[in-house]
Every structure is written in structure tokens, then in C-alpha cells.
Amino acid sequence: MSNQKDTFYSGLQQNLDQLREQGLYKPERVLASRQGSEVKSEDGRTLINMCANNYLGLSGQEWVAQASIDATEKYGYGLSSVRFICGTQTVHKQLEQAISKFLGTEDTILYAAAFDANGGVFEPLFDENDAIISDALNHASIIDGIRLCKAARFRYAHNDMADLEKQLQDAAGKRHKIIVTDGVFSMDGTIAQLDKIVELADKYSALVMIDECHASGFMGKTGRGTHEHHHVIGKIDIITGTLGKALGGAMGGFTSGRKEVIEMLRQKSRPYLFSNTLAPSIAGASLAVLERLSASTELRDRLHENTAYFRKEIERIGFTIKPGTHPVVPVMLFDAPVAQKFAARMYELGVLLSGFFYPVVPMGQARVRVQLSAAHTREQLDTVLKAFEQAGHELGLLKK
Ligand SMILES: *Cc1c(COP(=O)(O)O)cnc(C)c1O
């Protein structure tokens, strides 16, 4: 019998070795500093960070850390409880109200992560009589959430409105239909066509849900998200999002929408009912962040200035990028080994960024992905652009 245990472990080792051989193994970079536009790596190097979801530059900020300390002092370290037993404090209710106000919804429910928000949103609201119509490139947590639900599944080709309409027609016999999409897709920085999606939803009497993890806090004129960007505030039924990216960067997630939806999720959503309450330090800091973002668009404006500058300059140097306006900027290198070499050379030149290649992105679409932050100074961006130019020439990617 011990033989079977042995093959379990040796099988795992073989699979791990295979991942390494295929170049699919994901090593972890160890930082020895706070998160920020500049970080220290374990080996003592200082690097300009171009690969965090730290869009508003809040992750390492003193005032955000202080807000979390203040909340810890007032509310303690944790609750040792789920929300419905004795895990709800005033700070959690205040944060839920603040998120609802920020997004223009009626009510909000907090989760330990957006992964949980997406994992727990479908099953309580939809059953085998209903249909979920999902973009083919939606986030893994949406895919998992849909799997946990008995509704019929329809998938439309990524960002393809003609195919979405066809799927809506195919789902015509179902009781309730919901269209689900990432507000922004993080691999390409593609912004969902919410104006058109809302139009189709109206035509076919479907609900709309968006995942705003790469949008909340900075998309739209006052940073409310993709629904503000596309002028459809009030027309989205369910919004999920994270507190772990632009809105402070610690962790935590939420689902926001009509009060009946949120009330039912509080009764039935499994990651909410059977998992510990969000730490009060995070709730307090997130509340301070939302207050700051509601009072001023300064950080959001700086992020978009940085994005416009970087997009213009990187093209001027001669690189190809995916066109767009989002702070996710895919710099296309097309070839997987080239993308790997490029990212490694950039690291030597003091720039932290990530390379992506098949199967994470389609074959022949290898790239390095840059993510801008409000915390980047113009000087840092110029240093990064110089490094791009140097590495580009060294690897023969740019015309002389
Ligand atoms: C990051 C991300 C999530 C998960 O967010 P967490 O709060 O880290 O669990 C979910 N959906 C999308 C689109 C994301 O980008």
C-alpha cells in the first residue's frame, strides 16, 4: 500500500518537472520592501515596478497603512467569526454603504476576496431554469462560480457582440438570463463594450453583471468604473470587485447591486456564510481610500496622464502595443523566447515587468505587460522607456 503513496508524490514531482521543462512553471519574486512604484528585491536591487495592480499607487502609502492601524486599534485584529454570528462591526456596514454610494448601487456585501464574490454570486440567484451568458475570456473565478451553479451555460466569443446576440437568442427559452463580463480584461486592457451589452440586455430582457477588478477606482470620469466610462451607471444589475488592486491593495472583495440581490446573498452565498469576516484593518483602510477617491480625482487623473504618456512614447520608440486607453499596456514581442529574454534583460536594467506567452495568451501573441500607476513619476517612466529602447536594440527588435 505504501507503494501507492510513493507514486502519488513521485507523480507530482514528474508533473512539476514537466511544467519547468515547458516553461510554464511560475517562480515567485520575493520583495524585501513595501509595494510601490519602486521596490527592493530580495537580492538588494532597486527596481521600478511595472507589473503591480497598484493602479492608484495606494498599496505602500503611509496614510493607507495608518488608516488600517487606526482601525486595528479601534476594532481589534479580527473577529473570529463569520458575519452572521458575531462578525459584523460598524466599520463593515460603513464600508458596504460607502462602496454602494461610490458605485451608484443600493447595497453591497463584503467577501474575503473577489474570487469568493464571483464564486458565491451565481448559485444563490440562478437555477436550472435560468441561463448565464459569459464572455469566453472571463476571469477564472467567474468560470468557477458558474460551474457551481445549475443554470444553463452559454459562452460568447470574447468581446463579440454579434455572438452575444446569438447566444441570447439561443437562451430565449430560459426564465432569467444574465450576461456576465469582466469590465476590463487584464491581459489586453480591453474595455468591455458595456453600452452595447446594455442595449442587447434591454432588447432580450437580460440582466447584466460586470467584474470590476481592473476598473473600480479609476475607470470613468470620477473613477467609479467601466459603467461610468460607458455612461451606463444605474443599468448594471450586479457589480463584483476587489479591494486588493486599485482600492488599496490588501485583499477583500465585494458584490454590489439591488437590495434584494444582496439580501439573498447574505442568506445563501456560501463563501460569505462559511468563511471569516474581512479583517477590520482592511475595512477601515478601504473606507479611508473611498473617502479620498470620492473627494478628488487627482490620483485617477495622474494615472491616466501616465498611461497616455507611456502609450505615446513606447510607440514613438518603435514598439507595437495593443491600442487602447487602459493602464494595462501589452507591449507585443510575438515570440515566446524573445519575451522571456526581454523581461530578463529589463530586470537587469532595473525594471520589473512580466512576460506572457502561450498558453496564457494565444500562440504568436507573446508580450511583456506594463501596468501604469499614479505613483510612477515622469522620471521613472523615462528611465523605463530608456531601458525598453536599450533592450529593444540589443535584441534587434527596433529599427536603427
Ligand atoms: C484579480 C481578479 C479577481 C480576484 O480578485 P481577488 O480579490 O484577488 O480575489 C477576480 N476577477 C478579476 C477580473 C480579477 O482581475
TrEMBL record:
**Any single Pfam family the record assigns to this protein:** Aminotran_1_2
A GO term from the CC aspect: cytoplasm
For this entry, the protein name equals 2-amino-3-ketobutyrate coenzyme A ligase
Top enzyme category: transferase
Per the UniProt entry, what are the Gene Ontology biological process annotations, in alphabetical order?
L-threonine catabolic process to glycine
Record-listed N6-(pyridoxal phosphate)lysine modification sites:
K245
Q: Where does substrate bind?
A: H139, R369
Bound cofactor: record note:
Binds 1 pyridoxal phosphate per subunit.
- Tell me the InterPro entries matching this sequence: 2am3keto_CoA_ligase, Aminotransferase_I/II_large, AON_synthase_class-II, PyrdxlP-dep_Trfase, PyrdxlP-dep_Trfase_major, PyrdxlP-dep_Trfase_small
Superkingdom in the source lineage: Bacteria
Which keywords does UniProt give here?
Answer: Acyltransferase, Pyridoxal phosphate, Transferase
Co-factor requirement: pyridoxal 5'-phosphate
Annotated residues for binding of pyridoxal 5'-phosphate: S186, T242, L243, G244, K245, S275, N276
What does the subunit comment say? Homodimer.
Q: Which family does it belong to?
A: Belongs to the class-II pyridoxal-phosphate-dependent aminotransferase family. BioF subfamily.
Q: What are the protein's GO molecular function terms? A: glycine C-acetyltransferase activity; pyridoxal phosphate binding
